[in-house]
Structure formats: C-alpha cells, structure tokens
Predict the structure.
Amino acid sequence: MMRALLVLMLFAALPAQAIEEEIVLGLSQDRVAITSTFDGDDILVFGAVKRETPIPDAEPLEVVITVSGPSKPVIVRRKEKKFGIWVNVDSVLVDSAPSFYAVATSAPFNEVLTNTEDLRYKVSIPQAIRSVGADMKVQDAQEFAQAVIRIRKAEGLYSLREDTVAVDQQTLFRTSIEMPANLIEGDYKTRIYLTRGGRVVSQIVTDIDVRKVGLERFLYNLSRQQPAIYGLMSLAIAIFAGWGASAAFTVLRNR
Amino acid sequence: MQIYLPIAEVSVNAFLLLGLGGLVGVLSGMFGVGGGFLMTPLLFFIGIPPAVAVATEANQIVASSFSGVLAHFRRRTVDFKMGGVLLAGGLTGAALGVVVFNYLKSLGQVDLLVKLCYVVFLGVVGGLMFIESLNAIRKARQAGGTAPAKRRQRGWVHALPLKMRFRTSGLYISAIPPLIVGVFVGILSAIMGVGGGFIMVPAMIYILGMPTKVVVGTSLFQIIFVTAFTTMLHATTNFTVDVVLAVLLLVGGVIGAQIGTQIGTKLKAEQLRILLAMMVLVVCGKLALDLLLQPAELFSLGTDGGH
C-alpha cells in the first residue's frame, strides 16, 4: 500500500515535459567482445531529442550519460600497524558496487543535476555504491565506501567526465565512453538522462553487452564448468611444453 | 602487444610476461633453482592478483621441472624411492596448504601470509647461503684449493624407527624425516606458489645426508608431482589457474633457462651462489619493506569469498 502510494507520488512529481521530449538513442556498438588481444574500447553514445512541440526556452537542455558494469559485493579491508608490520585488521562488506562506472555530463555535474534528482536516480558515483549492512563494529564505515571509489578511480574503473557530452542545437548529443582493458563480463547498463534546470525531463536505459569471445570464452567456461578437465589440460600443456623445450634443445646441441 | 588473461581478468603486455619468464629462466638455468620464489613476487608487482599468481606459477613450475628432470633421467641421478617418500609427504602437505590458503583467503589475510612466508624463507635461505659462500670464497683464497667436503654425521635422523634402504642415494635411514620434509615443502608449495626446491635441496643435503649429485634430480622429480597436484587443487577449488599466463611465462622460461645454463658454466660455483644469495636477499628486502613501511593506500578491495 505504502509502495503503491510512493509510486503514485513519483509519477505525480514527474514534470509534464517528460512526455514532450523523448530520446532517440544510438550506440556505435551494443556489444564489447573481449578477445585475447582486448585492450579497452571506446563506445560512441549518440542520439537525438524527439519533440512534437517547439524547444522550451526556459533552461538549456543538458545530458547525463552513465555506464555501469555488473554490481557485486566488495569486501573492503583496512590495514593497521600491528607488531611492527602492516596487517589487514578490519573489513566492511559493501553490499553492491559496480565493477565499472562512468558518468559523462554536458556541463559541470552540479549544474546538470540537483542533489535531490541525483538521490532519486542514483547518478553520481557515490550513489552507485550501496552499503546498507555496514558492520556495526566499524564506526567510520563511510570511509570504506570512499575507499572503493578512490581505488577504482585510480584503476580507471570509475570516472566522472564533466563537459564531455556535446549537445548541438538542444537536439543532438554525443559522447565517447572509454572502457578500460581490465573489464569483467556482464551487461553494462547505460542510462541517458535529459535535464533542464537540474531536473530530469526524460530518460532511457539500454544495455551494452560485454562478453569474452573465442578462446577467452572457451577457457573461462571450461575453468568454471569443468575445472578438473581444465586443470588436467593446463598440466598437459605444461608437460608438453617442458618436454618439447628439452627435446628441441637436445637436438640443437647435438648438431 | 597487450593480451587479456581470461582467468586473471587483467590485460598485460605479452612481451613483458615473455621477458619476465625469460629473465627468471636465465636465473634458474644459472643457479639450478626453479625460480618460482622470484617469479611469484614479480607477478605481484605487475598487478596479477596474488591468488592467480600463486596457482599459475605452480602450473608453470610443472613445465620447467619436467624439462629439467628429463636431463636427470638420462644421467640416472633420480632416486625414485626417496622421491616417492618425499612425494607422499608432499601431497599431504599440499592438501593441507590449500586448506590453509583458502581459510586465510576468507579471512583476508592470504596476502599477508604469502608475503610473510616469502620474507622469512627468502631471508633465512638467502642469509645462510650468503654467509656460507663468503666463507667458501675466503677458505678457497686462504688454502688456495677446494674446501674439504664435510663428512655427514650420524645424528638424530639415524635414531628414528621405520628404516628404509635408498639404493640410489646409498642411504639406510628412517622414512620419517623425508616424510616431514615432504609435508613441509608441500605446504609451502601450495601457499607460496613455489616448487620448494630452494628449501628442499638444503634439507636433503644437510638433514637427510643425500649425495649432492642425486639431490637436484630427485627434488625436481618430486616437485613435478607436488606442483601438479597443487595446480589441480587450485584449479578445482579456487578457479585461479590462468593457462594463458602460464604458457607465456613458460615459453620465456624454457628459452631463458638454456641461456642461463650457458652463462652458469662460465662462472665459479661460489660466485654463482653469492650472486643468487644477493638476489634472494634483494627480493626479500623489497617484500619486507612493503610490510614495514606505511602503504600509500591503507584500504584494499576483495571479492566476497562466500558465494
């Protein structure tokens, strides 16, 4: 009952413009193939705003695009000096953090989205991380969530790219999302928001499919589904290589 | 050329891996050690997840040991009976080691354990070898000849029950000490991702009193089976063996080993040992500093083990 009411209120809160401006989306590719020579990828996200009415001349149209990888629980551990060496002492389980998260905006983040809208749509990087069941023993659990962001930003997995979405004539927009080489598999949820005056007027969601292909796919599946066969295969390759090298050098030396 | 490792899920430069394999191969050829104790820390440094580095290195050691043991087969310097006893201990130890490894992984202390093991063993082995070879060089200078071989003494090892005859080694000793050595090396092999030759070879010479000429062949023979077993355990329980990584390392490794053997024949034994000792101590020092100095990032991320 409570939930139904909330949903109703949400709909009521949506501005009337939401129906007037609609996103037509294109992606340069809707799948990323992780091959053995995979070295990251650039995905071009582009689109247009379809509207039946003239362009509202109140505030300029801004665009926010997020791409997020599969979310997984993450254990964050903190080191402390114990007995003279640095040891992991306490840990917090962050319930869900995306493996990859990129936010691209057409202007500084504070200008394209208000705080309330950010809370509602969970757009900014801190909003993408959920740590509800933080350990009660640890008092500064917030620091652990910040550590996730800091470490993943340093690895190029999380990024806020302000002013990187180009918007033409309040109608056409495009940006390029750079995907690093250390991606994991899954559906990368891509969300596009149109905002005016910091309020979301329209949104669309699509998926970019990131998959290992070919040899990578085969080896990964084998290692998970038939670990014994995978292990034996690894050993066979190792023994064959060891024998081959020995034999080859014996031949070379005898000549 | 970047290459994506399917199990480690990171992209690394293929030539860097070939080079690392080659470099460690040269050293292992020069010094007659497996090189696992150098390779695993190097893999940590280039960003391979420790669990993958340890499991994959076990797989690579199978290849390099197999390549090495073939030469010893031809020279008949493998004591199969002794190898069998060591192996029985080794397999038990490896199984124990993987249990310990997985338990500590769930506690988040596996990196600490692996690094501590490295610091302690590299420190002890490197230090002893350094002192021993310095003394050997000094003696050689004073006497102007070779140092007299130490007669192996009949100590506590010979007082134990369950005596067995090891013909190739010319020994009649209890089976208990080799079993214990085997268990110990098996545990280390699973936890540290090493063959354990650098521990086993001194133990075989000084504790069991085996003749030096059969020590290397026998330890290689035993290492193949223990590391193969470790590989299987890691592959089936942790899914952390990366075959692409292993192949790149071992291609570099086998080529490097042949070059290393050539260099090794041109240097004197004491000089070789002192070089190896210094190298071991450098790796040990680097790992010890990591534990002692405050890290730039106090936090680390791990995946939820209990899935």
Remarks:
- Chain B touches chain A through 56 residues (CB under 8 Å).
- The beta strands of chain B are 2-5, 10-13, 163-166, 171-174, 299-303.
- Residues 145-151 of chain B have pLDDT under 50 and may be disordered.
